[in-house]
Amino acid sequence: AGRRADKRKKGNSEEKKEVAVRGDNSVPESREEKGRKNIEEGYGRREGKKRSRGQKDEAKEEGDKKRKEKRKKKIAVLFMKVSP
Q1: Are 27 and 19 in contact (CB under 8 A)?
Q2: In what ranges is there compositional bias, type Basic residues (predicted)?
Q3: What is the Rg, in whole angstroms, of the alpha carbon atoms belonging to the chain?
């Protein structure tokens, strides 16, 4: 548990819980409540946005090509520097 974990624990202190019970708005709502509200307001995962397997593979191939091109250029530059 690093500093981050400690900070997270601090956020859940007793006085904050009491304030939440009183209905004071100074406390952020719990994650679950927030998630539920977002889904109700339509900010959830949208249906039908997933890419088909084929599209995914195409995109990957495209990325691989670009990466290879970049690598070739880098190597070419290195050789230019090395050769007199």
Answers
A1: yes
A2: 1-10
A3: 26
